[in-house]
User: What shape does this take?
Amino acid sequence: MKILPFIIATATSLVALILGVVYYTNGNANLITQSDIQQKQQKIQELNDTIDLQNREFQRQRQVIEQGAAIDQKFGPPILRDIGILAAQNKNEKLKSLLIRNKMETFIPTAEQLKQIEEQIKKNTPPADNSAKPPADKP
Assistant: This one.
């Protein structure tokens, strides 16, 4: 009967050995998988950083474009109108053709519109005041 406890102990230790080997191989597989996951997480983090940089650059470029659009809306039409007036006043065909080529012929005034513009300019321009300060009384 002494052999029965020996067989039970041997079988139990054999099962423990098999479970230890299985645990060890699974542990190594888990370590390899964890290492792969960490590498992928690092790549994802690098891509996220790259995306953040590109988003910041996009926002900066958007601001520049918006500033340019605001300047264009504020100063563009008056400048084009002035170019059209100059082209009509000086009969500058190159300026006229430039405006026409860019489909901006609406900025070129007709002869009647040009007369009205010149009259407005004369009305809005204050007369030159040549009178200086009155001379101070000298004792």
The two ends are 148 Å apart (CA to CA). The mean pLDDT is 84. The helical segments are 3-89, 93-101, 111-124.
